[in-house]
Design a protein that fits this description.
This protein is 53% helix and 0% strand. By secondary structure, it is an all-alpha fold.
C-alpha cells in the first residue's frame, strides 16, 4: 500500500476499506468511525438545530411505519 492509500491511513486492510466503502454492516463500528474521521466525512452536523430538525424528520417517517416494523426503544438512561 502506498502512503496515500485510505486503508493505510485508517489502519485497516485494503479489503476492509473496500467493505467500509460499500457499507458492509459487518465491519467494526470503530473502523467505520475512524475512516469517516480521517477521510473528512462529517457524520454529525455541529449545529444542534439542524440535528433536532433531522431527528424530528426521522421520527415523522418512523411514525408512518407499521408498529411491528418500528425499532424498539432502548432504555439506556443509567
Amino acid at each position: 500500500m502506498d502512503a496515500g492509500c485510505p486503508a493505510e491511513r485508517v489502519g485497516v486492510s485494503k479489503p476492509t476499506m473496500i467493505r467500509i466503502e460499500r457499507g458492509d454492516s459487518k465491519v467494526a463500528i470503530g473502523a467505520v468511525l475512524e475512516a469517516a474521521a480521517l477521510t473528512g466525512v462529517a457524520l454529525f452536523d455541529p449545529d444542534p438545530d439542524v440535528r433536532a430538525n433531522h431527528r424530528a424528520f426521522q421520527q415523522a417517517e418512523l411514525a408512518l411505519l407499521p408498529r411491528a416494523v418500528r425499532q424498539r426503544r432502548v432504555d439506556d438512561d443509567f
